[in-house]
Write a structure and sequence with these properties.
The protein folds into two domains: 348 residues, TIM Barrel (Alpha-Beta Barrel), CATH 3.20.20.540; 34 residues, no CATH class. Helix content is 47%, strand content 9%. The chain has 18 helices and ten strands. The strands form two sheets. It has an eight-stranded parallel β-barrel with strand order 3-4-5-6-7-8-9-10, surrounded by eight helices. Helix 2 crosses helix 3. The termini are far apart.
Amino acid sequence: MRNYKTQMEAAKKGIITPEMKTVAEKEYKTPEEIMNSVAKGEVCIPCNINHTSISAEGIGAGLRTKINVNLGISGDCKNYDVEMQKVDMALKFGAEAIMDLSNYGKTNTFRQELIKKSPAMIGTVPMYDAIGYLEKDLLEITAEDFLKVVRAHAEEGVDFMTIHAGINRRAVEAFMRDKRKMNIVSRGGSLLFAWMMMTGNENPFYEYYDKVLDILEEFDVTISLGDALRPGCIDDATDAGQISELIELGALTERAWARNVQVMVEGPGHMAMNEIAANMKLQKRICHNAPFYVLGPLVTDIFPGYDHITSAIGGAIAAASGADFLCYVTPAEHLRLPDINDVKEGIIASRIAAHAADIWDKMFEIAVDGEKARAYFESTPPADRHTCSMCGKMCAVRTTNMILEGKKVEFCTEKP
């Protein structure tokens, strides 16, 4: 029987949890270092008490950049078998987190199966599931109804939830005042905005934030404070709406920490390259160095079909500038629900952005997609197996190593 409710509470009490030990081993740090970072809120370990198959991961300052894979059904694509194939793909290629963003029908059966089998962290956006779960239209849903969905996801074992609590009336006023090209592109944010405008009420996740925290604390669910006003094109980046919401998220971060609820903060979105580093530093400052979770950023708006590449460019810059967690983007972004091949391309692009390292002698063993690397290599095998067919005997590594080993390099006299 553990004598703490959350990882943060344990850390503040000086207790090293089994999950902290696991993270420390994976990150080559001491358990004490992980504990101290969790206590300060600079690292979170999303790990619901009901997710028994999880292999704990840490997200935050001083740790490896982690990646998340989005999947889930929609009204147009309802095949859960395909979604589970995507889960297998995500686990195969080392994604540390999977978000079930299903937004159609009764999703809990799939989610429970996902949580049961997945060692990766599982995230959701309860707002997406509200209409299908409650079988009510948006205008009929009450604040209490929204909280029911949050509790249902927590009970199932979800490790982190995106809660768009920052789009309150103040943030909406800034958004309405400062006109945008793309307005609101966050699905959850747009639904809450519509609910607020139709009912005249405050954002329920903001108004009843303490009740949300009650649920999250009970199951040790990490809150991922959603950026409902993230820019949907580079022209809207770093505008009044985005910054106004970010200020609210900073205050909500401190309120969650006061309740020992772990926090991540979500960020943009679409953003020109020269704004990314400044935005990472701004977020860390305003949100008190909480772990930062970014979608992209996508550095250009004009390459639909290739947004896994535009996202990887932005993600690499973001991670180098302080972002801790990258949400993958697939070639299907903005166009359709991704298929299994799209998912693979998105994962690989995000993994490249998060971590790039090749060691030639062990390349096929440590490569994320070793099958593809070996297939390329074997398709045109070189005479010298320590080179590839592009350079052959003129391989730069081979030439340099021969000289350093005291050998002569004489291409014309070498035997074929």
